Amino acid sequence: MKIGFIGLGIMGKPMSKNLVKAGHELVVCDFNKDAVAELVEMGAKQAANGAEVAKECDVVITMLPNSPHVRSVALGENGIVDGAHEGSVLIDMSSIDPTESKKIGEELAKKGIEMLDAPVSGGEPKAIDGTLSVMVGGKKDLFDKYYDMLMVMAGSVVYVGELGSGNVAKLANQIVVAVNIAAVGEALAFAKKAGTDPELVYQAIRGGLAGSTVMDAKAPMMLSRNFKPGFRIELHIKDLNNALNAAHAISAPVPLTGQLMEMMQALKADGYEKDDHSSLVKFYEKIGNVTVE
Q: Cα(187)–Cα(202) distance, rounded to whole angstroms?
């Protein structure tokens, strides 16, 4: 299959590489010339902009930072809409505001262009090994058509509902992850303050109801003081901002999300926005005058 891929960042580059390895023909576009060169070396073709990509490919994948970037690449000058034809498909795998996904889809539909929103979860490690979780919104027949292609980059690809539903699922995921990480940090800081070894507390509770994939991924990072980003605080702030905007638009109360946003903003103010979101433990360390290790 000939596929356009726009956005070769931390996630997009390994995802696109997996498509090439699986035998797909890629046309790529990104501001990062080094990332483009890596893909070209693997056999991909370079394009200057979204219009050029869409002109050559019936399906275009975007993996971009946020809603404004997707809108610009899809609908802006020299965007996908300028090069696509009736029946072309945009699969946006970025994590953006679901209300914006719907609006972009409506604009593309006026030109006969279809759209799926298919955000991912799993971070860079799962992008590299092709085991991401993908949540897809849009027409079911389009989902069925591109399921196998998406599975090249994923361990699971799940249909959620109409356009925008993929990003609703992704934001729900980000809410759960943020609250879970904060709970782990709070518990370990409490244990340390109480004079009990937080490592042993973690080992004692991880096999019970409190145990989770998040705990097993993030507690060891907190305990070893390893905050090298798998998913940066600033990116989680972006996701929680989208969650708050989407929730406010439908009058859905999300008080824990609001609290986590303020905690992450405090960490950003302290200069930790580039750190992994496991650094939420630093919020508790600061206010509790304790160091978890």
A: 9
In this structure, the strands spanning 45-46 and 2-6 are: unpaired
Q: What is the dihedral of CA 248, 260, 62, 93, to 10 degrees?
A: -90
Burial of 19 (0-12, 13-18, 19+ CB in 10 A): buried
Q: Is 31 exposed, middle or buried (0-12, 13-18, 19+ CB in 10 A)?
A: exposed
CA 185 to mean position of chain CA atoms:
22
Which of 96, 89, 30 is CA-nearest to residue 68?
Answer: 96
What rounded mean pLDDT belongs to the chain? 97
84: CB partners within 8 A, 6+ apart:
54, 55, 60, 90, 108, 111, 113
pLDDT in tens, 234-248: 999 999 999 999 999
What count of Cα atoms within 13 Å lies in the side-chain half-sphere of residue 178? 28
Q: Taking 90 as the threshold, does the pLDDT of residue 93 lie above it?
A: yes
Instruction: Considering the candidates 13, 17, 126, 170, report the single residue annotated as catalytic.
Output: 170
Phi, psi dihedral angles at 39 (to 5 degrees) = -70, -40
Catalytic, 33? Answer: no
| CA-closest candidate to residue 55, choices 92, 13, 6 | 6
% of the chain residues with pLDDT over 70: 100
| CA–CA separation, 218 and 275 (whole Å) | 13
